[in-house]
Amino acid sequence: MTRQQSTQFVSRPILVAGFGRLLPRLPVGRLETFGLALRFGAVTALLWEFADYLTFVRTNEDELRTA
Predict the structure, then answer these.
(1) Quick count: other Cβ atoms within 10 Å of Cβ 25?
(2) What is the pLDDT of residue 53?
(3) pTM (global) more than 0.85
(4) Are 16 and 37 in contact (CB under 8 A)?
């Protein structure tokens, strides 16, 4: 596992858990809270990968070749 992968493996659940702790303030049930937190994690992971591509992969020829 690379350093970037391990960082994402550790930080993603922390981010989702923090978001999930805010959701009980909304008038939704436990299942909806779980679904919203899961979707938040998926969307932020996708946005992270797009930003990673735009900032590092697109401008680095070595990274672009192996991406």
Answers:
(1) 7
(2) 84
(3) no
(4) yes
Contact 41, 15 (CB under 8 A): yes
- Mention every residue, 6+ apart, whose C-beta is less than 8 A from residue 34: 20
**43 φ, ψ (degrees, to nearest 5):** -65, -45
Rounded mean pLDDT, 11-20:
90
Please give the structure tokens belonging to residue 11: 């930080």
Closest CA to 33 of 20, 17, 14, 16: 20
Structure tokens at 64: 């672009």
Mean pLDDT of the chain: 85
| 45, two tokens | 């992971």
Q: Output the CA torsion 38→7→53→22 (10° steps).
A: 30
Contact (Cβ atoms closer than 8 angstroms) between residue 50 and residue 67: no
